[in-house]
Structure formats: structure tokens, C-alpha cells
Amino acid sequence: MKEPRNLTSTAWCKVAGVVALAALALTPVALSQSTKKPPAVATGVPPAFDTLKIIPVDGCPCGSYKPNDAAEKRYQESRQLTAAGKFEEALKAANDALAFDKGPIYRNQQAVALFNLGVARAGIVGDKKRLDEALRVWQQMSRGKSVACEMTFYANALCRLQRWDEALKVADRAIADCNLSADAKVAKSIALQYLGQAPDALRFADEAMKLDPKSVAALYQYASCCYDLAKYEDALRAVALAIGLDPADGQSRTLLAMVHLALKHPAEAQANAIQAVGMTSDPAFLMAAGGVLSELGQYQQAAAAYDKALQAGFDPAAMYARAVALHAAGNRAEAVKVLHDLETQSAGYLNVQEWLKALGG
To answer: In the chain, is it the N or the C terminus that has fewer CB atoms within a 10 Å radius of its CB?
Structure first.
């Protein structure tokens, strides 16, 4: 299946170390008195969650199903509603399709709709009952015969929930179902990467890229693995190809900024990070772009990236990072205000209380 570019939500992946706040090493007094450039927000590569086919699309290279005329219309309607983010309506249409045919392709669409309803933001449970039901449907399907790429959907859902060991096992099943699927191999690569097996992750990303050279997700994942392995020139080539295929992709643009930073190309890193902030609403990538801008001393722009990340919902790490950037930019009053808000919403978070005392807040 070709990767959709209009996913409704992507991961805020703390497991991957998207935000490792170097400011933790500073004492509150040092933060308030130092005239030196404060440590920036370190960044790790956010995962290639745009590969996750939570919105089904055409083009699975393996398997086939015989459409049921009565079910097919409702199934296609459910897919379209899912793409539009109308998940309640998508679930109703999927259930209507199942009334006519309980085949794997239609059951998978039911699981897709349930999963989208169950996860408010990738990795963050919105409606646990719906989420558990989606996983039960996929688990039951895993015990039977697959006719297309259903297990790739399941593996991707597990990745979004950061259940890496389970995702790896299901990805193996997806590959067994369809060895020609780039998506299944990208899913396995993601799981391996976040289990700390970067060389193996790179190998499967490379296989995925060769299966589908025009897969933005496969190119991104390959570049991500190269970045983790400090193969920055290889990462640069792959992510440049991804952007060539989709110039408006904020995720790839963020990774490009990170690669340029690693290669000590500050002007290119800054330009791409700024573009990335304008292109994406994904908090993980906004935090990564903000980290690049912080490293370059562009603290006001970094603070704006963190602020945009917070629009997806409260996250203490994003709020703390914003306070660090504002303070570094010389905006002490606004930094104190952000810290007060953080202490109100997440009492006792890190060294916020001490920092407020040191700042006279």
C-alpha cells in the first residue's frame, strides 16, 4: 500500500528520546545568572509514523480479496470518512459493511475506525474501550488467514502505541503475508530501531526502499536509521529524495534540518527547521525542529515551535522546553509565566519550583 500523507495524528514518542532536556543539568541559580549560552534541547529522530496505514489506501502489492457488492460500497465510504477524520461515521459504515461480509478486509476497516476513535493522539489513549476493541479485532484476525495487508495495519498500530516487541512479531507476520510490501518492512524497521537494533533496522529500511523507491516513508525511515548510526551523508541523500517526492512534508523537512545540523551546516539547518515548523502540526517533529533552532541559538523561533507543539495538547516537556528557550532569548517574564503554568498543571515537574525561586517568580 502506498503511504497516506494525511494521517490524523502522529506520535509524541518519549521512548525515542525526542526531548532530552539538557537544561536539567543546570542549577536554577546557573539558569538565572549565567551569561553563557544555555544548553539547548537535544533531539532524537521522531519515528516514521507516516507509514502507519491507519487510513487505508489502495495498492497492496500482495493478496487480493473478492469484493462483496453489498459490503464494498459501505467499506469504501468508511475509508473516505476515515481520511476525513470522521471516525464515528467511519465506524458506522464499517459495521454496516460487516453486516454483509465478515471477511478480513472488512474486519480490518472496523479495527481501523475503532483505533482512530480510541487514540486521541498517537500513543495517547482517548477512548480505551474503543482502543482495546480495535486490538482485539486485529488479534483475532492474526490467528486466521490474511488476504492482503491487514497485519501491516496491526503492526503499525502497535508501533503507534510504542508496544515495540509486539509490533516486531506482528511485522514478521506481515512480511510473511506479503514479502513485497515496503510498508511491512518499514514497520519492522521502526520496531527494531526503537528496540535499539539500529543496524538491523537500517537493513530492513534499505529493503523497503528498494521495494518501493518512491515511498517517502521508506526513504524517511532509511534516513532516520542512518542518522542514528551517524551516517549523516547517507541520511542526507535519502531525506533529500523524500523531500523531492513530497516537498511539503514537514516530517522529512525536520529530519533534513537535523542532518544539516549534524553536518555543521547551520544556515541550511536553520532554514529547514523554520520551514518544518510551518509545515507540520505534529508535536514530536515540532519539538525536534525547536531543538535544532535552540542549538543554533534561535531561541525565539524555538519557543514558537514549542508553543505550536503545545497546541496539540498539554505536555510538560514541551512547556519546559519553551520556558528554557524564552529564558535564553531574554524573555524572563514570559519564561516565569510559562513555569507557573507548568507548575500548576504538573506540580513538582523537574526543577521548576527551584527555578522559579531563583528567578524571583
So the answer is: C
